[in-house]
Amino acid sequence: MVFMTILANLLATGCALLLVHRGPSRRLKLLAFTVGLMSLSQTAALLHSVGIWSPPAAHVAQLHELLVAALALQAIYLLGQEVYEQNYKDRKLRLLEFDFMRPLGGMIAKKTARTGKAAREAGVLSAPAVWSQEACK
């Protein structure tokens, strides 16, 4: 059981290092590095509790834990910024899509006004109806 836990933690550390290498932004690279460091810290704590490995000095282990905690706080802050920016981009794209669809609605409304009843029977939709159908796909 202990061997499998150690193996899983080391595998998580290796995957985190791959993500650090391939990360698209500094924020995500730091987040992957922090997760890898936390996994490595868990491995060291598990090895110490089993008695396989002992840290060279107690203050080194405490300093390592403090570093992991500080990086975790920083990573959570940067992850929050990443989420905020993604939500901001999504809102901007929705507004851009709405502004793009507005002229289309004006053209359809003019066509509907000219053709009258025949256009409604033909199934020509207004701009909000077109936009809502596109948004639901």
Give short descriptive properties of this protein.
0% strand; disordered C terminus; mainly alpha; single chain; elongated; 137 residues
Q: Considering DSSP H and I runs of 4 or more, what fraction of the residues is helical?
A: over 70%
Order of helices and strands: HHHHH
Number of helices: 5
Structural class: mainly alpha
Query: Tell me, what's the shape?
Result: elongated
Count of separate structural domains: 1
Unreliable runs: 129-137
* Rg, alpha carbons: 28 Å
Q: In total, how many beta strands?
A: 0
Taking the sheet with the most strands, its summary is: none
Bin the strand percentage: under 5%
Task: Give the terminus-to-terminus CA distance.
Answer: 48 Å
pLDDT average, as an integer? 75
Provide a concise account of the structure shown.
With 137 residues, the chain is mostly helical. It is 88% helix and 0% strand. The chain contains 5 helices and no strands.
Protein described:
The chain contains five helices and no strands. The protein has 137 residues and is mainly α. It has one domain. Helix 2 (26-50) runs antiparallel to helix 3 and helix 3 (58-115) packs antiparallel against helix 5. The relative contact order is 0.08.
